[in-house]
C-alpha cells in the first residue's frame, strides 16, 4: 500500500491554494470598498465645502445689502434735515423782514436764518460722504462675487486633485454643477428690479423722512363764525425717492385764509395761501433734479402749493 502515501499532502496543497486565492480576493475587495468609501467621503466633503462657501457668500451679500440700506437711509435723513433747515432758515428770514420795524427781534431771526443756512449747506459733505461709501460698497460687492464665484466652482477640482493624490489605482474626478454660481442665485438689481431694494428702504424710513406734515399747528383764528373769515397755518413736508436715483425733500409753511363772499346773490367760498417758509434739498446720483413739478412730499404739493413752488427755487443739490 505504499503507492497510496502522500494523498493528504496533495489535498492540503489544493486547499491551501484555494484559501490563498480567497484571502487575495477578500483583500482586493476590501481595498476596493475602502477606496470607494474614501471617494464617496471626498465627494460629500466637496459638496459640503461648496455649499458652505455658497452660504458664506450669500451671508456676506446680505450684510452688504443691509449696510447699503442703512447708507440710503442716512442719505435720506441728511436730505430731510437739510430741507427742514432750509425751510426753517427761510421762515426766520421772512420773520426778520416782517419785524424790521423792531430791530432787536429782526436781528435775532436774521442770525438764526443765516446759521441754519450754513448748517444746511454743510450737510452736503455728510451726504456726499455716504454717496461715496455706497459706490465703494457696490464695487466691493461686485469684486467679492466675482472672486468667490471662481473659488466656489473650483472646490470640486480641489477635492478631485486630493483624491487623485491619495489613490494610485483610481482616477477620481469630481465635476462641478452645470449651474454657474452665483449667476443663478445672486442677481444684481438693475432697472425696475431695483424697486425691490427701494421698497425695503422706504419701509424702514422713520416718519421724519417720509412725512413732516401737520395741519393747524396753531389754533385757527376765527374772525367771523360759519367759515366767513378764518385763518389757519399748515406745515407740510416730506422726502421721497425719485426714479430710484434721487432723494428729494421739501418743507413748507403757509397761512391759509378761508372766507366767503356773496356774488350775484350766491355765497362763494374763497381761499388764499400766504407762504411763510419754504425749503428743499436733494441728493441725486444723476446730478440733476428729476422732480421739479412732481411728487407729494408729505402733502406739500396739495396743502401748500404756492410754498412748494417757492421751495423749488431754494434747493441745494449734491
Question: Could you explain the architecture of this structure?
Answer:
This protein is of the alpha+beta class and 318 residues long. The chain contains 6 helices and 4 strands; from the N terminus they run H-H-H-H-E-E-E-E-H-H. The chain has helices at residues 7-98, 103-166, 194-204, 207-210, 300-303, 305-311; strands spanning 221-224, 229-242, 246-263, 266-284. A hairpin with a 4-residue loop joins strand 1 and strand 2 (229-242). The protein starts with 6 loop residues before the first helix and ends in a 7-residue tail after the last helix.
- List low-confidence stretches: 168-172
Oligomer kind: single chain
Helical percent range? 55-70%
The total domain count is 1
Q: What value does the average pLDDT take?
A: 80
Instruction: Describe the strand arrangement of the main beta sheet, using strand numbers.
Output: 1-2-3-4
Compute the number of helices: 6
**Overall 3D shape:** rod-shaped
The share of residues in extended strands comes to: 15-25%
Q: Which structural class fits the helix and strand makeup?
A: alpha+beta
Amino acid at each position: 500500500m505504499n503507492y497510496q502515501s502522500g494523498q493528504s499532502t496533495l489535498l492540503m496543497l489544493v486547499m491551501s491554494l484555494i484559501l490563498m486565492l480567497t484571502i487575495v480576493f477578500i483583500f482586493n475587495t476590501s481595498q476596493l470598498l475602502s477606496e470607494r468609501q474614501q471617494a464617496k467621503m471626498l465627494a460629500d466633503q466637496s459638496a459640503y465645502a461648496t455649499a458652505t462657501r455658497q452660504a458664506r457668500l450669500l451671508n456676506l451679500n446680505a450684510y452688504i445689502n443691509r449696510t447699503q440700506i442703512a447708507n440710503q437711509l442716512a442719505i435720506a435723513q441728511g436730505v430731510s434735515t437739510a430741507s427742514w433747515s432750509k425751510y426753517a432758515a427761510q421762515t426766520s428770514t421772512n420773520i426778520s423782514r416782517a419785524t424790521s420795524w423792531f430791530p432787536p427781534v429782526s436781528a435775532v431771526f436774521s442770525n438764526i436764518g443765516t446759521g441754519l443756512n450754513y448748517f444746511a449747506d454743510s450737510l452736503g459733505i455728510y451726504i456726499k460722504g455716504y454717496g461715496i461709501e455706497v459706490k465703494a460698497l457696490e464695487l466691493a460687492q461686485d469684486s467679492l462675487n466675482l472672486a468667490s464665484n471662481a473659488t466656489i466652482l473650483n472646490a470640486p477640482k480641489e477635492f478631485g486633485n486630493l483624491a487623485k493624490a491619495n489613490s494610485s489605482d483610481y482616477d477620481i474626478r469630481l465635476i462641478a454643477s452645470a449651474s454657474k454660481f452665483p449667476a443663478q442665485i445672486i442677481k444684481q438689481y438693475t432697472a425696475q428690479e431695483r424697486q425691490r431694494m427701494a421698497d425695503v428702504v422706504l419701509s424702514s424710513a422713520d416718519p421724519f423722512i417720509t412725512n413732516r406734515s401737520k395741519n393747524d399747528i396753531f389754533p385757527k383764528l376765527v374772525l367771523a363764525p360759519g367759515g366767513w373769515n378764518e385763518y389757519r397755518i399748515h406745515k407740510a413736508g416730506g422726502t421721497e425717492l425719485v426714479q430710484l436715483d434721487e432723494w428729494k425733500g421739501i418743507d413748507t409753511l403757509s397761512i391759509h385764509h378761508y372766507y366767503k363772499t356773496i356774488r350775484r346773490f350766491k355765497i362763494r367760498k374763497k381761499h388764499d395761501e400766504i407762504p411763510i417758509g419754504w425749503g428743499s434739498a436733494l441728493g441725486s446720483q444723476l446730478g440733476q433734479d428729476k422732480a421739479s413739478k412732481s411728487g407729494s412730499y408729505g402733502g406739500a404739493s396739495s396743502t401748500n402749493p404756492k410754498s412748494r413752488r417757492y421751495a423749488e427755487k431754494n434747493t441745494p443739490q449734491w
